[in-house]
Structure prediction request, 298 residues.
Amino acid sequence: MNAAKLMPGDVIGIICPCHTADKERYTRFFSGINKLGFKVKEGKNLYKTTYGYAASEQERADDFNDMILDPEVKMILFGGGNVGNELLPYIDYDAVKKHPKIICSYSNGTTILNTVYAQTGLTVFYGQFPGVFANISKYDSAQFHAHFTDESPRIFEKNSEWTCLRNGICEGTLIGGYTTCFAFLLGSKYFSYDKDKDYILFLENYEAFNEPSRISAHLAHIEQHEFMDHVKGLLFGHYSEKVYPELIESLKRFGERHHIPVVMCDDFGHGKNHGILPIGAHARLDADAKTLQFLDPP
Prediction:
């Protein structure tokens, strides 16, 4: 299931399900969105601090559900944080099925994106968030328009050097996001996967939040779940400007253990590039050619 593309002047709903928004910062983000030709609608609880670290689960979920039900809103955009998983019992998944819209986030938004896809079949998008629009780069702008306003891309556009860590070619449904959050999703009653499908897993992390040993532990958690039996390839995104050999070796071992191709890049995640990956799209990863092709672009 795919949502309709954006048209000039459409409304983008901004919510904050994973943290508390700062009004001064978000005002700059909104200005950037307006410059692209779109209007902004704020969630009514966007700036609330009911729990100190965020609004309550119900308040944040109300913002999400209200945006889904609002016929004026064509896209829902939100950023990361820590507590996106608190919303999962409160999301109106039936409403999402009835009113499919573009939903895009990254980082802790991984939890909500993958759960919405699992519960509804709606293709959702990983990679961009409100902060991107404060001073949007040429690459990020091109990614936004490629996926949300123009004819959908047939191949992922690169803006960094891709490194093949294990050779091979695979096809499957794209799924993933921030490594820690995706690992924590496995076993949740709100997240499921199709045992008749193959998957291409994409993951990213950030050195400020997790050292390589912790990433290795999170990868092990994913490996030890039966979901791993359906993973046919791994694309790993930005981690640091510095090269960490221990992380690279961990990713190589991951690929060797499961006999799958592994590629590393800096084109999505917490770095300077915010490429977009559609969760739910069928894709082909060619580690030898270092390409990701969308076989059924949304």
User: Anything to note?
Assistant: The chain has two domains: 11-148, 163-294. The chain has eight helices and 13 strands. The first helix runs from residue 23 to 35. The domain at 11-148 is CATH 3.40.50.10740 (Rossmann fold).
